[in-house]
Amino acid sequence: MNQTSTEEHPLLGVDGRARALRLFLIALVGTPWIFFIEPARQIVSLEATIAAIGLGVFLGIIATIGLADVDLRNINNVTATVITLVWICVATIAVWLIVPRQYLGTMLQFVLAFTWTMPVMQLLYHRYRVPAPG
Fold first, then answer.
1. Model pTM score
2. CA-closest candidate to residue 60, choices 71, 48, 68
């Protein structure tokens, strides 16, 4: 009765569809966790919130287009993990130095905008891009 499937799971692929599905899953799971943090539910200043959301959307679009055709299968997992942790530390320190303490809630709103822009743009990019002539 138990037959092995020859189909690959849609979340495990390396194509644009699988990447978009993974990003949507991350956004769906991550959004409630971000809203558990109380500063994410407060609007400190309308201008700061609009700027944070606008910057999150803009950088999400840039990141999606910049990473759309990057193939990460050949990268060593340990190297990728170390590089990711270093960039997280650098970004955290930069946020602590640049963003005033009373505006840290807007950083979480930036994260939400960035997190939701990535899967939407990934879907649109791979759905509507013109195939390369060949």
1. 0.72
2. 68
